Predict the structure.
Amino acid sequence: MIHSRSLAELQAIAKRVRREIVEMIGEAKSGHPGGSLSAVEICTTLFFGVMRHDPADPVWRDRDRFILSKGHGCPVLYCVYAECGYAPKDQLNTLRKLGSVYQGHPDKRFLPVLEASTGSLGQGLSIALGMGLAARLDGRGWRTYVVLGDGEVQEGQIWEAAMFGAYHKVDNVCAIVDYNKIQLDGFVKDIMEIEPLAAKWRAFGWHAIELDGHDIPALQAAFAEAAATKGRPTVLIAHTIKGKGVSFMENNPKFHGTAPTPAEVQMALQELQ
Amino acid sequence: MPIKTRYELKLGLATREAFGRALAKLGRENPDIVVCDADLSKSTYTALFAQEFPDRFFSCGIAEANMVAIGAGLASAGKIPFVSSFSCFGLNKGFEQLRVTVAYPNVNLKIVGTHSGISIGEDGPSQMSVEDLSLACSLAGFTVLSPADEVAMTALVRVAAEHIGPVFIRAGRPKVPVVHSPGQTFAIGRSVELTEGTDVTIMASGLLVAEAIRAQEALEAEGIGARVIDLYSIKPLDREAIARAARETGAIVVAEEHLVDSGLGVRVAQVVAETCPCPMEFVGIRNTYAESATPEQLLEKYGLVARDVIAAAQRALARKT
């Protein structure tokens, strides 16, 4: 069973994960660094401070489930899995290479510990809600967490699922929008504005909490509030910075889907000492 | 000499109703069976399950894409979900979800499409599914079943539930003749030979199986022995039965209530080409969308009745060397 870590430990893991993300995408020469770096605290807090799971028993029936619906951000999930011991740390440098467990988007066939194969945006929330229904039918207490991209909520299926989750009172599901304000073509507000985002979720019947998605204690408090909220699902609108932690990647749409050069990797690693 | 079976085709249940009844029965036996429907449960007959097991029935509203992925989540957590809608909506609107959340990770979901083909009738082309077999067969790892009557549907719903992996079952709106005997067994990748014959083989699925039997009786009166095979397992096909028919009868007609360019016929032709090439003719919908009318009028107008099967058989026979 993973035990909860202190704030200092969580921050140390987050920094290590950031270094690994930059290195593995640099090695792969393609991938999505910006949206991986923006979700580091969200994933680290969940896996080391919130979720009940056991790396010694990856298929433990009562484990909390996690789905990365914004599948392109998989480097952060791979690094967190490796930190937990679910996946091999010494193979992180095989990202996107033939036969690697670390496929370009999360693929259960290669990494069975994944709860879902994702990559086509808009679908993970529905899968999470289906899992939540199953847990409720079985009378089990496990919860399901699903991370969505901000651009991803432009997909119509997200709102079909939002309606469904509230109507069926799937309160054992918690969605987190990694609201880093940037998608592939540019800033979200310039591509397809999604504001007022929290108001939209509330109008759909969800309990919505807005917070700083890099503030670990705030994330822990919000996840506790989500677990205590009954009768409706919760969404965290996590305001984040795309490329967080690497100055030249922060708020830079270029690093949505561009790998750092070897020189940029070195610069980034120096910043992440 | 083989003894030919004389068929008296009696009208039975619509395959959608047989599906709904079989599903409710399965629900009594297996608590892991759960059902999702998109505001069509009275038409798909999943309402029968919903009445008995309200806690295991999930109303998804008119949102098929979400419904398919909800089913994928239920399946991933150990349930056996049957998601149901009209075939055209479930497959067309849920196709991307069927591909990425079901087929690619090989999730144990069953999708049932009712009101398939043009025999939905008066509602017209927007509700007609004439490409569902093509869509379902294009999903890697999917099993695709098209029962012809209530006997086949009842058995195949159970087969689908027991099979681990994604399955599409095609059902129709109108009541259909019972073509199978009560004890008939059904399995994935198999078929049923309904009449023996060595001059030509008529392979059919769904509604066209009854038309094939009617055609066989008319051909017999002209001294032509037609072997009729119900190819209810569209994917995987019964390759052995197809190859044997090609070898032993040397002429094949495939008849289906589907676009002829992309359905059962082309799949059978691939097997025939790979095993024992012979003349083939195809009965199906030809590169068009139908219209509003009674099912009988539409089947007649769009060339899906026994007369069309007979004509195709005669063309195939004429091409035999």
